[in-house]
Amino acid sequence: MPKSLSDPEQLFYLGLKALIRNEKGQILLVQEDPRDNPFDTVSGDYWDFPGGRIQKGETEDQGFSREMQEELGVSEVTRGPLVTAIISNLYSEIEGHKIGRILFIYQVSGDFSNIQLSDEHTAVKWFSPAEAAEWLKVKYPLELTGKIAELD
User: Fold this and answer.
1) Ramachandran category for residue 51: left, alpha or beta (phi over 0 → left; psi -120 to 50 → alpha)
2) What is the spatial distance between Cα 20 and Cα 76, in angstroms, rounded to a whole number?
3) 109-143 confidence digits (pLDDT tens)
4) Is 125 helix (H, G, I), strand (E, B) or coil?
5) What does the angle CA 133 – CA 137 – CA 142 come to, to the nearest 5 degrees?
6) Is 3 inside any structural domain?
7) 76-102 pLDDT per residue, tens
8) Which of 8, 38, 132, 149 could lock 27 by a disulfide, CB 3.0 to 4.6 Å apart?
């Protein structure tokens, strides 16, 4: 029997995120536009890894490719190894129900010299690992942000 939103088990979105580093070791983050996602439970905008949710009917590869094209305007990327999978500090609220986020973060390489930022974001910037870790604390647990801060 299909579960309803009122089921006591936690519901989750599955998201794919890209850990992109440049030749200086900096990490690419995008600044979220809070007007674009009314389901976010954080007030104000915040910085995040590029990426997003897998849509119904998509494979992981299709969803990842679509998100990189939509968010960065980059179609030629290589999804490398999985960095980690975590449960986000944030959740979405839909029809009064909390929907959690399980996020898979992958190392990603490609040509990011000509980024075309989506309307979902207000800025894109390269940060040192320590700076990126500070900005990511809104959405990600210390388990991940601590690892990011320690990257060379």
Assistant:
1) left
2) 13
3) 989 988 998 888 889 999 999 999 999 998 889 99
4) strand
5) 85
6) no
7) 889 999 999 998 887 777 777 788 889
8) 132
Strand-pairing partners, residue 124, are 30
Domain residues for the domain of 95 are 11-149
Block residue for tokens 């870790």: 133
Residue 56, phi then psi, degrees to nearest 5:
-55, 130
* Strand pairing report for 11-20 and 97-110: parallel
Q: Specify the DSSP class assigned to residue 40.
A: B
Residues 138 and 101: their CA atoms lie apart, in Å, by 13
Partners of 101 in the β-ladder: 13
Asked if residue 91 belongs to a domain, the reply is: yes
* Three-state DSSP state, 72: helix
